[in-house]
């Protein structure tokens, strides 16, 4: 499972959407970074894949994507 995420300048995920797989409906949506934001396509880790859709999206917002990577990492509790 893959998602596209938008991160702020610190790398924290501020928006996310699932990457459509072939055979999905014709509905499409998009995300666009502005300013210093960055758009990254990431693999969704197993601990997030098992969650229901709404919970998964909420959980992804508690992650970051370190610069020069394409991997979701949990945000440290002190940084929330």
What's the quick description here?
It contains two helices and five strands. By secondary structure, the protein is an alpha+beta fold.
What would your notes on this structure say?
- By secondary structure, this protein is an alpha+beta fold.
- It has one domain (about 1-80).
- The chain is about 15% helix and about 30% strand.
- The strands form two sheets. A three-stranded antiparallel beta sheet has the order 2-1-3, with no helix packed on it. A two-stranded antiparallel ribbon has the order 4-5.
- Strand 4 (about 65) and strand 5 form a beta hairpin.
- It is globular and about 40 Å long.
- The model has no long low-confidence stretch (mean pLDDT about 90).
Overall mean pLDDT stands at 88
How far apart are the first and last residues' alpha carbons, in Å? 26 Å
Domain tally? 1
Radius of gyration: 13 Å
- Poorly predicted residue ranges: none
Number of helical runs?
Answer: 2
Please give the largest β-sheet: 3 strands, antiparallel
**Strand elements, count:** 5
- Find the structural class using helix and strand composition: alpha+beta
Helix-strand topology string: EEEHHEE
Strand content: 25-35%
Characterize the overall form.
globular
For the biggest β-sheet, the strand order reads: 2-1-3
Give helix % range: 10-25%
